[in-house]
Specification:
Length: 267
């Protein structure tokens, strides 16, 4: 793996950030992780991002990762309601484990990309608002709120079909930021979930003074078209500046092209 990264540094410069996409980069402190954390900074020396899980980000793993050059991690909250997280999603993670893991990340200077799903089949809108408050209390560097879209054939998908929440011939794998295809939510509830997906990052990261207004906008009625315009750029900004800031071009020309591409995308 190190040889491949060294090849990238030479053949595809400049290499500013390495993104490891294993579902869980390190499960424990073991000889592999110790060897990686010794060799990577000495031979590669490029900041990196990886995915972790709350029960694997211990003091020891966080200290090793930070020392090796890890600057940010993706670590999902899944749901801010323990019952939903463990009974419906079967994540086997307590609230305390989730809270402690984000605290450990902050202690070692690791920025956190924290995804909290809303619109989970079998959950309620009240559960979604509890999740919003839970995420705010934990304080991920870049909080996001994708709308749950079960993969076809998974246990969650089968249970939704069996309950009548989803037609078996429906493909739910649309964008995680578009209105849910699940039948267990009303159109009004689905609109609230969309507003939460786009405005949730604002609610969690702006000063306390702004939160009552954002909460009211999420509850509605706030036009979904304006929700996209307000929420999407801020979400991108938060991810770019907090999680992948090494990859942000510094030249005016490159920044202008990024802004132009973003405008074209939104249009």
């Amino acid at each position: 793996m190190i040889e491949e990264l060294l090849w990238l540094k030479e053949e595809r410069p400049p290499l500013k950030l390495v993104r490891f996409c294993d579902d869980t980069f390190a499960h424990r402190v073991d000889p592999w992780l110790e060897e990686f954390c010794e060799k990577y900074p000495a031979r590669v020396g490029v900041p990196f991002y990886c995915l972790m899980r709350s029960n694997t980000l211990t003091e020891d793993t966080a200290r090793l990762l930070a020392g090796a050059g890890c600057t940010a991690i993706g670590m999902s909250i899944e749901s801010g309601v323990e019952r939903v997280r463990n009974k419906l999603l079967r994540r086997n993670l307590s609230d305390q484990q989730v809270i402690a893991s984000f605290a450990v990340a902050r202690k070692y200077g690791l920025q956190t990309y924290g995804a909290t799903m809303v619109g989970i089949p079998g959950s309620t809108l009240d559960d979604d608002f509890q999740s919003l408050e839970f995420a705010r209390s934990i304080g991920p560097s870049a909080p996001v709120f994708p709308i749950c879209t079960p993969y076809r054939g998974t246990e969650l998908w089968r249970e939704a079909v069996d309950r009548g929440d989803l037609d078996g011939d429906t493909d739910p794998m649309t964008s995680a930021l578009t209105m849910s295809v699940l039948k267990c939510f009303t159109p009004a509830e689905k609109a609230v979930q969309v507003r939460m997906a786009y405005l949730g990052p604002l609610y969690c990261t702006l000063p306390d003074l702004a939160r009552p207004l954002i909460h009211r906008l999420i509850r509605g009625p706030f036009p979904l078209s304006l929700t996209y315009v307000v929420g999407q750029p801020y979400m991108v900004y938060r991810i770019a500046t907090q999680i992948f800031r090494q990859a942000i071009p510094k030249t005016p020309g490159a920044l202008f092209r990024i802004v132009l591409d973003s405008v074209r995308y939104l249009a």
